[in-house]
Every structure is written in structure tokens, then in C-alpha cells.
Amino acid sequence: MNSGILLGFLVYLALLAYIGWWANRYTKTEDQYFVGGRKVHVLAATLSDKASDFSGWLMLGYPGAAFSSGLGAFWAGIGCLFGTLADYVLIGPRLRIYAGKFRAITVPDYLEARLKDDTKLIRILSALIIVIFMTAYVAAQFTAGGKTFAEGFGISDNTGIIITVIILTAYVITGGFFAVVWTDVVQAMFMLLTLIIVPFLALSEIGGFDKATAIIASADPNLLHPFGGATGMAAIVFAIGYASWIVGYLGQPHIVTRYMSVEDPRKLRRPGIFISGTWTILVLWGAFFAGFLGFAMYHAGMLQVSDPEKVIPAMAVELMPSWLAGFVIAGIISAVMSTADSQLLVASSAIARDFYHKVLGRELGKKQMVNISRLVVAAVALVGLWFAISGPKVIYQMVATAWGGLAVGFGPILVLSLWWKRTTKEGAIVGMAYGLISEVIFEAKIYGWAFNPDAPGFFGTIGGWFNGIPVFFINFFVTLIVIAIVSMFTRPPEDVVKLHEDIFKKVSIEGTGKKSITETRAKSQVENVVDFVLTKGTA
Prior knowledge:
Layout: H1 3-24, H2 30-35, H3 42-69, H4 74-102, H5 107-115, H6 121-153, H7 157-206, H8 209-219, H9 232-243, H10 245-248, H11 253-261, H12 271-299, H13 311-319, H14 322-359, H15 366-390, H16 395-419, H17 425-446, H18 457-465, H19 471-488, H20 494-505, H21 517-521, H22 525-535
Helix pairs in contact: 1-7, 1-14, 3-6, 3-7, 3-11, 3-12, 3-14, 3-16, 4-5, 4-9, 4-11, 4-12, 4-16, 5-6, 6-7, 6-14, 6-15, 6-16, 6-17, 7-12, 7-13, 7-14, 7-15, 8-12, 11-14, 13-14, 14-15, 16-17, 16-19, 17-19
């Protein structure tokens, strides 16, 4: 084991331990444990949102896709960027306003209050969706951590997975949401620095971008084609397959919970978009080119890598002094941790708060609820550990499957409930039940991650129509239609409709002057960002 790499990593680990200790002073109640008391600054919430979003997928899965698929993998980056913007436009501000109105701590809290569901079915379905797919998501993060430790320290993947589980579980149990948010801020900066430094070092080692593309062209010319060499309808399917991440952003509880915690919902419209969009562009650029250039280094004999998803840690060890490589390894582990900690917290809230407290009606003190939540975090981590060790260990596919289940389960109902006053609890129950059952059946039993014609009978016919398109991308829109149809045949309570109308008539718009609200909202988001920065700053 390289002592320099170990030293750099231990310095980073000590920093995380300090943050967890510091955050524990602010974690005495359930509200503080799950949403930081709704006092999180927009800068911290925004960086935490993106760090918890991109995970080991950004540092291992996406570079691995660029290594294997070349230029065509850039479509995934486009999908992620526009998905990020969609979250801030369609979900963030309205969800924060509603969450504050209802004192909602979790997404199921919001849905139950917004749709006035007294049956507890929405909360039960939410808990099932979160536990099933979030546990699978956590397992993917543990796998990513295991691969990184294996490449950096010369240990087995399974040993690395166990180390990741121990570190992660310890600081989530210790600090709750405050620890998660502020470690995410540190991790977001580590991820950014890593993904800026590594591609430039690779370019310098290869001898320039022209030489890199020449090496790639000689190895496989299709890797320089924006559609992987496909044409016509096949090219469209290729692009959709990679860009389909866009719809998933609308239904990720570990991401949208950040919006519920921010101190001022108006700042999600302007500085939130500016900070998040800038960070997202930089890291996606870096992750893509790290994998793309890593392929060139591999074929030029400059890099040895046994697994495409280990390309960044392999490049760090090859191109950097050992102590600096240790910090890069820490940056990769930080990406894994920043998502897995959020997912553990959300899964904990689904079991401890949404099911044990709300559905079963068990009344406990606030401190007792926090302690139960910590026990649940440990239990979920153990289940995730088992899946990570026994699973396929392909991070891109593992993340996509879990991402899709959460996207279909929560995305359609969140969008409709925030924007359509006629959304009903019956529509939500039927739609969420369909989303849960269909995703489990289609992805686990019939198709796998993407549609294909190999399924038997009628399902094979459907698979042929959408061959190569991710199941969750089509299923998202089917679920949206199901909720809308059921809602049109049922009737929401009048007070729910009136509340929706009243809340969003009162949304304040800063700096309108003599302009009407309609005129102000007609401005582009970019113009609003510029106006805000010039007049108020981003703080």
C-alpha cells in the first residue's frame, strides 16, 4: 500500500470526522436531523444538491461510459445538465414554499398534506418506493467506493466496499442532515478540483488533443462519432438512451429534499440556478474528458486499467505524486459518500418517520425518533452492503436502474401536484402504485434496464417498438398520463384547490418595479440571474 496515497486520504477523512462532530451540536430534533431546521444557506444547499446528485456515477460510471462509448456518452452529460435546470424550474421553489406551509420534513409529508390523503396509502407507497430503490442506489455507491479503494490501495473490491460502509454509516449516524450538507459542500469542491486537474494532466501526458483523437480514431473510429456510428432512428434511440437521465431528476428524494431545507425559496430561482448550472457544466466536462482521454492513454500504452469504471483513480495514481493522488482518491470517495449519505438519510426517514411514526402512529419523543432513525440507517447500510457484495458491480447500470425507479415513483406526482391544482389523491395512489409495480416487473423480471425484443410474447413486441430506450424514460410519461386521467375522473377537495391558487398568487418577485408579474416571468432565467447578481449578489 502506497503511504503517500494513504496520508492524503487520512487528512481528508479527519476533515469529515470534524464536520460530523461539529454538526452533531445542531442535531437535537427530528426537524434538524432530516432538513437542518430549514435554515440551510442557498450556497450550501445548492452544492449539497449537486454533490448528492452525481455520486460515484460521476467519478466512475460516467468516465467509464466515455471510455467505452467515446463521444456518444456526451449525451448523458446533456441530459444531466438539462435535468438539473428542470429541477430548479419545476420542482425547487414551489416544493420549498409548500414544505414551509405544511411544515413538511420529507417528500411523503408534502404529498400527504398537499393531496389531503387520510388513507395513509400515499405514505406507505412512498416508503416502499424509497426503501426498494434507495437501497439499490446505496448499494451502487458502496460498489463505487469499493472500486476506488481497490484501485488506490491495492485491496479487493469487497474489502473496499466494507471500508466504505463503515466510514459512511458512522458520520451519517453522528451528524444527520447538517453533517450531510456540509460534508457535501467539501466533497463538491473536491469533485470539482479532481475533474478539472485530471483531464489537463492527461492532455499533457498524451501530447495534446489532436494526438489523443488520432489514437482513438486508430483504435475505434466510432468512438469519435456523436451517435456511436449509428444513423437514422438508431441514432435517435442512441441519444435518448444516454440523455434519458433528464426526467429522473424530477423524482429523486435525496435531491429534492435539499430544496425543502433552503432558507429562502426565491434564491432557488436565481443564484441556485447560477451556482448549480456552473458547477454541473464544469464537472460533466471534466468527467467526460477524463474517460475519453483515459481511453487514448490506455491504447497508447501509458495507462493500465482493468475496469473502464476505474479509469480516474488509475489516472490519478499514474499521473500524480502519491500524496496528491491520495487527495484525488479522497475526491472520488467523496462523490460516493455525498450521495450515499443522503440516500441513507432518506431511506431512514421513510422507515422511521413515514412508516413507524406516521403510519403506525407510534408517538415518541423527538430525541427518541432521531435515535431510531440512526438505527435504521445502520440497518439499511447492512442491506446495501449485501447487495453491493453480491450484485453485478457495474455502477452505471446499477445507478440507472435505481434512478429510474425513483424517477417513475415520484417524478410525475411531484410535477403534477406542484403545477396542477386538480391533482387528486386517487390519481397519486394509482399512479405511484403503477410506477412501483411496473418498474419492479419490467426492470427486474422482463427487460432489464432498457427495452429489447427478447422478452416473450406481447412484451417482446413492445420491446421491439422501444428497443434500446431505457424503461424508466417511457414509464415516466405513462405514469404521468395515468395520474392525470385518474385525477380528471375524481375530484379534489375545494379547500385544497383554493390553497394551491392562493399560495402561488402570493409568490413574490423581487425587482419587478412597474412591470407586471406576467412580464417579469416572461424574462429568461439567464436574464433573471444577471439581474439578481447585479442588484443583490449571490449571497
